[in-house]
């Protein structure tokens, strides 16, 4: 009877050991799945962070470009004024040449 009890205890121990190993394997698979999700999530977070950083840089560059365009428009306007003044001076020179020619006669 002692051998029967010992045999059934050994069988029970082996069965428990197999179930425990199976559960540990399942938990390891679940843990691996969770770990993959965490890695994906962290990579997604990194991608979102990089995208936001790039968008911010583009926004800053766009703002600087807009400011530079406004400055260039102002410079173009001033160059236009200077052109008009030089054109008037050229026209005035033609008038002065006519007067000098008239005085020489």
From TrEMBL:
Keywords: Lysosome, Membrane. It is found in: Lysosome membrane. One of its GO terms (cellular component) is BORC complex. The keyword DNA-binding does not apply. It holds the Pfam family BORCS7. Belongs to the BORCS7 family. This is BLOC-1-related complex subunit 7.
């Amino acid at each position: 009877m002692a051998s029967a009890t010992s045999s059934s205890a050994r069988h029970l121990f082996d069965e428990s050991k197999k179930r425990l190993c199976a559960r540990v394997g399942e938990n390891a698979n679940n843990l691996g799945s969770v770990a993959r999700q965490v890695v994906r999530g962290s990579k997604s977070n990194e991608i979102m962070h990089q995208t936001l950083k790039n968008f911010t840089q583009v926004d800053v560059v766009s703002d600087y470009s807009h400011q530079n365009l406004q400055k260039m428009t102002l410079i173009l306007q001033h160059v236009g004024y200077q052109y008009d003044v030089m054109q008037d001076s050229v026209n005035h020179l033609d008038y002065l040449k006519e007067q000098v020619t008239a005085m020489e006669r």
